Write the structure tokens for this entry.
Amino acid sequence: MTTVITFGTFDVFHVGHLNILHRARALGDRLVVGVSSDALNQQKKGRTPIYGQRDRLAIIAGLKCVDEVFIEESLDLKADYIRRFNADMLVMGDDWAGRFDSFSFLCPVIYFPRTPSISTTSLIEVIRND
């Protein structure tokens, strides 16, 4: 069985999120998704998510392509998460290209292109400005 792991905030869930999750799942038999905690998102992006971690976790867990979800507490724990879930590969969006290559000693790291013209940050800005 091939286990694929990916991570994200998944705030204001959109088709770009769905695309990357479907593509990640197609690479293996099992997809495990780490959903960034509210505190981690504040640290990474300088803002709290629109939807809290409990809601974001429920949204991702409800997807047919996702087999298991967990809260990602720290970027520094990525290697631990890869080991804990026996991941055979790590998949991320190419907005993170190169940032996780250091984990290639544990498993292959694949960066998927983002869905064109879709960005959570842009969507939040549109919502806030309306």
Notes: The two ends are 47 Å apart (CA to CA). Residues 15-26 form the longest helix (12 residues). The longest strand covers residues 30-36.
